[in-house]
């Protein structure tokens, strides 16, 4: 398997792709970004959302997360876990659940980074399903000793709108018999494909004429949510959304539906001894979280609603010893908190302030 190259352009920095496999042997992507001069910097592990990739932190058309971390004295590490669109596993190859990400992908990446950086601090900045999976890894005690965690969009207490949960259930039961995944690039599937009705449904009431934007911003792969505030995107970012987000596998929906119904990150594999290291319910083991946590969400998060505010309320009530904070970003949705044209001004400062306090 050949990992698709990153779309990054970073002046004066060295991008090092690491041959890397998860603990179950699956080939993943792990990228280290060094400044021009080697320094002993705190490291930051960046975790993307499902069907996205590390490209979301490296947008060349905006001031991106990696550039900001480098300028502030950090060494970014980017994990393309098995849900990355730089990898083929969403469309071909073995199927997986988020249990695999929490048990095999994230802990292996953390161990590898620690072998490379020695005793330097290691932070994690995670988005969406990357943050959900990280919460399960932390609740299982598989990634102890992080210097701090920033979770964007959702963390331990996922909360979907009722219509989104209903459409997710319908998609899981009705569409999975016909499709393995929902694509986002209409140019690849063509007008006469079996996916055309899905794109047609996504276009209903949409303000943007672009089919990829419609199925992402107006529909979120058919579940009726919105992934970003449209006006927050740079024109170049908007035009290459099909590069930044890949097809959504429908066979993952049962686990996602169980998570949404529980309003907690829960284990999918109940009777498989390979997954016994993971708790059945991550929220019940939140006392294993041993580092400060910053919860971030846009005020217009159309995917996970006020999940982060709920998480803050639950954690401060149940785990008063935990250093947990909540920051809401006015005018932002979900994905645009990282890929928005103004994210460096409106969002990244909150992240850096938190990291600098604990470095």
TrEMBL record:
This is Alpha/beta fold hydrolase. It comes from the Bacteria. Keywords: FAD, Flavoprotein, Hydrolase, Oxidoreductase. Residues 42-132 form the AB hydrolase-1 domain. Belongs to the GMC oxidoreductase family. GO terms for molecular function: hydrolase activity. Its cofactor is FAD. It comes from Streptomyces durocortorensis.
